[in-house]
Write a structure and sequence with these properties.
single chain; about 400 residues; alpha/beta; Rossmann fold; 4-stranded parallel β-sheet
Length: about 400
């Protein structure tokens, strides 16, 4: 074989490899996929898939991304990892999506993390703040959307030590990576001085019908401060049980479950005064934002593209923000819609002021730090809305 022939062969192989990397990105269409629980005990989070589809319907009506239509294929996995594996393989191998976006669940997204990285398919804006999705060295193609759970809980622990140094602290956490991140963070925040303050660590399984027995165990520990590292259903159940037994500790709840409606409203808003959380997204129920340009645009989008959705459900506002960031990533990718370039543009996101973010909060990514939010805002519920506590806290 001559050097010319060898050169042509190498060029052909490189061209074929480049074409393979671009897979489903065509001149007219971009394909995104996700898995969410439209059924099962966590079906409340099906709103994530609905809102993702609705956001890109808006994008398409406005001309798409650089003239390309965005197709979102959203499949039900009931928040069950075996089902997630099946559905994600379909999205990659049959539907040939360019990226997986806004996927729900720590355990479910973790179950396909290795596969997607081996296939070099971007798994972006996973709806989890777990460290599982912030490991750029081991899992380069996987990034999270939510604030880091461990960092969030660490901030709670530090605030407890500042304001209530003699507190007796307990934690209820989901028995998986999601819950264990909160446990580690809380212990780090309490520090060596506050180590004795942690009087109870109680777990629950996602399939448990109620958390009644767990709440009774927390109460019997003598705790006066409780962190509920739990999903919306279990937070509502736990708060209702506290009301039922007349127990009134200071409560902190995971930000993923801090919706006024339905999480708190199911308990009775008057029964949740003083509950604490952290936030990065403007609460759509807060009258503070009623004349805010972001909120007005969000409300118009809900009316047109999510007419059956609940505008008071902050999950819609969150997905509105994350999807806007994904649209920005795709826009920055230009005509190079290879999976590698989509990831490259994701990692180039710097101080992006997505719509519906709280003042002082932006999105930033880098090749060595996959924590999307470098600042968070502590909040306290006053019976009607979440009220900011101080200024945003930075790492």
């Amino acid at each position: 074989m001559t050097s010319k022939q060898l050169g042509r062969l190498i060029a052909a192989v490189c061209a074929a490899a480049a074409a393979l990397g671009a897979t489903a990105a065509t001149k007219t269409e971009i394909k995104l996929g996700n898995t969410v629980p439209y059924s099962g005990p966590a079906s409340f989070y099906g709103v994530v898939g609905q809102a993702t589809v609705a956001y890109f319907a808006k994008v398409n009506d406005e001309g798409g991304i650089n003239g390309r239509k965005v197709t979102v294929i959203s499949l039900d996995d009931a928040l069950q990892p075996p089902k997630t594996v099946e559905q994600v393989r379909k999205l990659v191998e049959q539907d040939e999506v360019d990226a997986i976006v806004n996927q729900v669940g720590t355990a479910t997204a973790s179950s396909v993390r290795k596969y997607l990285n081996e296939q070099k398919v971007p798994q972006l804006f996973v709806m989890s703040g777990s460290n599982n999705f912030q490991q750029p060295k081991e899992f380069r193609y996987t990034t999270s959307a939510l604030m880091n759970y461990e960092f969030e809980a660490k901030m709670y622990g530090q605030q407890i030590m500042r304001e209530r140094p003699n507190a007796k602290v307990a934690i209820l956490y989901q028995n998986d990576d999601y819950g264990k991140d909160y446990l580690r963070g809380l212990k780090a925040g309490l520090g060596a001085q506050g180590a004795k303050a942690l009087v109870a660590e109680v777990t629950y399984e996602q399939t448990d019908p109620t958390t009644d027995s767990q709440v009774l165990a927390l109460k019997s520990s003598g705790a006066d401060t409780v962190l509920l590292a739990a999903y919306s259903k279990q937070v509502s159940q736990s708060l209702r049980k506290m009301v039922e037994v007349g127990w009134k500790p200071q409560v902190y709840i995971s930000h993923v479950s801090a919706q006024v409606n339905p999480t708190l409203s199911l308990v009775g808003l008057e029964n949740t005064v003083g509950v604490m959380t952290a936030a990065v997204i403007k609460d759509p129920t807060d009258p503070t934002w009623q004349n805010d340009p972001d909120f007005k645009a969000f409300a118009a989008w809900m009316q047109k593209y999510q007419p059956k959705g609940d505008i008071n459900n902050s999950a819609n506002a969150s997905i509105y923000a994350y999807s806007a960031a994904m649209a920005q990533v795709l826009k920055a990718a230009g005509d190079d819609l290879s999976r590698e370039n989509i990831l490259r543009q994701m990692l180039a996101l710097k101080s992006f002021n997505a719509p519906m973010l709280l003042p002082g909060i932006t999105m930033t990514m880098s090749a060595d730090n996959y924590n999307l939010f470098r600042s968070i805002q502590l909040m306290r519920f006053d019976g009607k809305r979440w009220v900011t506590v101080g200024k945003p806290i930075s790492e």
